[in-house]
Specification:
The chain contains two helices and no strands. With 103 residues, it is mainly alpha-helical. It has one domain. α1 packs antiparallel against α2.
């Protein structure tokens, strides 16, 4: 996207220079303007790249956080099931003792 914008800007600059008498494609002024456009494009690309990298890091952290939340939820569910199993085992033991006393 940036490359096509640069190409368009340079082409427009050359056309404007030719029609206004600023000089041909090889004139120092045109070449200076082309260099400015190229430098601005490089800066813009670097900024976009940095933003994309930051977004990737943010997405990765978010994904990991979501994974951690899922794991925590599973662990909590397993703890609850373990507590329920202990409670059920205790009730069974009490029933067994009661049955033994009665018999």
């Amino acid at each position: 996207m940036v490359d096509s914008q640069v190409k368009d800007a340079i082409e427009q600059l050359k056309q404007t220079a030719a029609s206004s008498g600023m000089g041909g494609n090889d004139s120092a002024l045109v070449q200076q303007k082309v260099q400015q456009i190229m430098q601005q494009a490089t800066t813009q690309k670097q900024t976009l790249y940095a933003q994309a990298m930051q977004q990737n890091v943010t997405n990765a952290v978010s994904e990991l956080s979501g994974g951690n939340a899922t794991l925590a939820s599973i662990a909590n569910m397993q703890l609850a099931q373990s507590d329920q199993a202990k409670s059920a085992a205790g009730q069974m033991a009490e029933m067994a003792l009661l049955l033994n006393k009665g018999g």
